[in-house]
């Protein structure tokens, strides 16, 4: 594989505390730093350690509803020749967390992607909740609908109410359909018409 990590990236890559990865021009994962493995381990990620993802296309790990958003961002970064970025949520069962993703094309080597934790966070609109009776969220087929971006769960009887439910983030064995809540749809796809959109 003729992939060359630029020296200025190499110098900081492995020791950087943020989650860094490099994609080639075909968006295959060519390098991940130690921060990637730490983040995967802390968040219970299965099958996504560095050795397991190297050489695979990044879109194998991106939920369907976010594909167009990331396609646009990667293309924009490859074209731009300077840093571009956006904020996103990745909360744990108990802690509201926001991250910033910065992307930049690197000479002859595709894209460098940097994910940084944002310490000065917005206050979340809702607090995490513990539910005793999960029938509010689980369909008759045993499925829950979770937002692929903010990981809130939709109430069955009200498609516009999405709650941050701790147990659904902890319990990774559930059957989940990934959609987008209206707030994340508006943030990620501002050009999309919202009414009647099924997520
Ligand atoms: Zn959302």
Rounded Rg: 18 Å
Overall helicity: 10-25%
Bound molecules: zinc ion
The run of helices and strands is: HEEHHHEEEEEEHEH
What does the main sheet amount to?
5 strands, antiparallel
In angstroms, what separates the terminal alpha carbons?
A: 40 Å
- The DSSP helix count reads 6
Structural class: alpha+beta
Estimate the strand proportion.
Answer: 25-35%
Number of strands: 9
Mean pLDDT: 88
Low-confidence stretches: none
Describe the overall structure.
With 199 residues, this protein is an alpha+beta fold. The protein has six helices and nine strands. It is 23% helix and 26% strand. The termini are far apart. It binds zinc ion. The site of zinc ion has 8 residues, from helix 6. Zinc ion binds next to helix 6.
Question: Which structural traits does this protein have?
Answer:
single chain; 199 residues; alpha+beta; 5-stranded antiparallel sheet; 6 helices; binds zinc ion
Give a quick precis of the structure.
The chain is of the alpha+beta class. It has helices at 7-13, 34-42, 50-53, 67-80, 166-170, 182-188, and strands at 19-23, 29-32, 84-89, 98-106, 110-117, 143-147, 153-155, 158-163, 175-179. It has a five-stranded antiparallel β-sheet with strand order 2-1-5-4-3.
């Amino acid at each position: 594989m003729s992939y060359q990590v630029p020296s200025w990236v190499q110098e900081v890559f492995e020791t950087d505390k943020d989650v860094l990865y490099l994609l080639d021009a075909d968006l295959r994962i060519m390098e991940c730093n130690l921060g990637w493995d730490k983040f995967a381990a802390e968040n219970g990620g299965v099958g996504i350690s560095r050795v397991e993802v190297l050489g695979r296309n990044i879109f194998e790990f991106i939920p369907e509803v976010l594909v167009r958003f990331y396609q646009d961002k990667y293309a924009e970064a490859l074209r731009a020749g300077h840093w571009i970025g956006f904020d996103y949520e990745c909360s744990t069962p108990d802690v509201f967390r926001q991250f910033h993703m910065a992307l930049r094309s690197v000479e002859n080597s595709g894209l460098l992607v940097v994910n940084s934790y944002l310490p000065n966070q917005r206050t979340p609109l809702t607090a995490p909740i513990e539910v005793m009776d999960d029938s509010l969220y689980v369909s008759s087929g045993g499925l829950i609908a979770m937002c692929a971006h903010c990981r809130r769960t939709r109430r069955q009887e009200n498609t516009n109410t999405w709650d941050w439910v701790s147990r659904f983030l902890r319990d990774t064995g559930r059957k989940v359909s990934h959609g987008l809540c209206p707030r994340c749809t508006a943030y990620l796809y501002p050009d999309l018409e919202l009414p009647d959109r099924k997520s």
